[in-house]
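TEACHING EXERCISE
Course module: macromolecular assemblies
Task: Read the component lines below, then compare them to the predicted structure of the full complex.
Student: A.B.
Group: 4
Components provided:
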Amino acid sequence: MRQRFLNRINFTDIALGIIGAALVGLIVIGSFKTLAEGNYTTRQWLDFVVFGIAQGSIYALIALGYTLVYGILRMINFAHSEVFMAGSFTAYFAAVSMAKSGFLESNTIIAVLILFAIAMFTSTAIGVLVERVAYRPLRRAPRLVPLITAIGASFVLQYTFKGLYGDQFKAYPEIDTLKGSYTWGDINITKVQVVVILSAAFLMLLLYLYVQFTKTGKAMRAVAEDKDVAALMGIDVDAIIVRTFALGAALAGAAGILYAITFRQVNFFMGFIPGIKAFTAAVLGGIGNIPGAMLGGIFLGLFESIGPILFLDGLNVPAPYQLKDVIAFSMLVLVLLFRPSGILGERLSRTKA
Amino acid sequence: MAMLDLTDIHTYYGNIHALKGISITVNKGEIVTLIGANGAGKTTTLRTITGLLKPRVGTVKLDGEDIARHKANDIVYKGIAMVPEGRGIFARLTVTENLDMGAYSRNSKTEYDSDIQRIFSLFPRLKERRNQIAGTLSGGEQQMLATGRALMAHPTLLLMDEPSMGLAPVLVELIFETIQQINKEGVTVLLVEQNALMALSIANRGYVLQSGAIVLQDSAEALKKDPTVQKAYLGME
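Instructor-supplied answer key:
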């Protein structure tokens, strides 16, 4: 009995176990020391939390695009980060001209809505185009093939924008109306963060209602489960796939505006890091799972906002905040190692069985 | 009058010649059964009729119109619905959402309400479980759901692929009674079954499929008495 148990354990399991235990130990010790030293006030911690939620809502919006497409095609749309960039970049020109004419200040709400419309429209158009050109002809090809065209499409988009508009960072105009912040007790939240969190929450609610209750939304879920049977119901599978791409792309476009008003700059390469972070968030929540992408996005935002200080400051790591990307991507590796189905993925496969 | 008319159908899976020139006729109001062993081409025949597979040669005529090269999602608008092999329910959707998908090709809200009431009176179990996730239903309930979902499309021709598969004998009888009832209400049925005895007991006519070709065709009564059918499919010596 004992012999059989010992035989079943192999080297990989042991190595993984040790790595996992070491990491948990490191995190616990680091957090404990940081808190014991008390270098950070409650107010600062709450700032990290607010920043994390705002950042996380942007990740969540982008992550939904990965998850929607994966849910239907079992494919990672690696050009999605460029769909995000394209919306943000295109709306930049409108933002600049509206800033020059003074419209951005005099009618901020309308101006920002126009920016949203432009970014979402551009992203949708590009998302649908990528689907048509790079993925649809390969629907019956082995899974690796569309992955390669995805990377190709991603480069085409990046270098198109670089070729057209140069490779330098362009500053998004600052909106004076959105300067300043609100304070409740120890919680301090900037107006920009309020806009980011509320718009993201609103869009995610709309998406949820759309997928859950409309005829097209139900058809999307049906196609995600079984394309042949969905076709037998009279559902035009290709049309539903296009709408799925469009929906994910529109959310990425909106995320592009939220990103632009937060960080106030655009660049042809700006999609890469947020794109991979959002992909991490989607995997973290359980790829293919819509609430999972939302949850994963917020969680990742909080994790990379609080994590570096909480885990590393106590261990006397210098400038821990510069390691936030390291922490985020380490988490992607760890999730893939220890829980490949993500936070909500497990529950899903259980109900399916 | 022939409602569905397959003439000299050849269907391939890649290079595999799955259907080797089969011809089948289904008349309006009939129950026709297609019996045969595993791999004989029964499911392939149904998938060819519904457009999920395109025949390389041959015609599939529905009321005189050749539908062999139509897209699968257009076929249901022509009045053909299918209960797929292994039921093919959407496991993560609720019972009601599955029925909604069955009604995808329909546009009338008032008819939808009466249709869903009709399905619930045909299968009271589905009504009890209408908000349940379909994947949590028992095999019999899933078969009821797949049948109800197909009926939501108001088909004139219902294709059923192995409805008795994996079900307890009591449930098999219930499903076959339902098929007869649906047929009495005016729906023509093409039934694919491995359970040849049950299929021939409710069918008007039958075809025996072997290695992608029709080897026998006759009235159900005659097929039941045919010595080769009795030996190969009814388990009699």
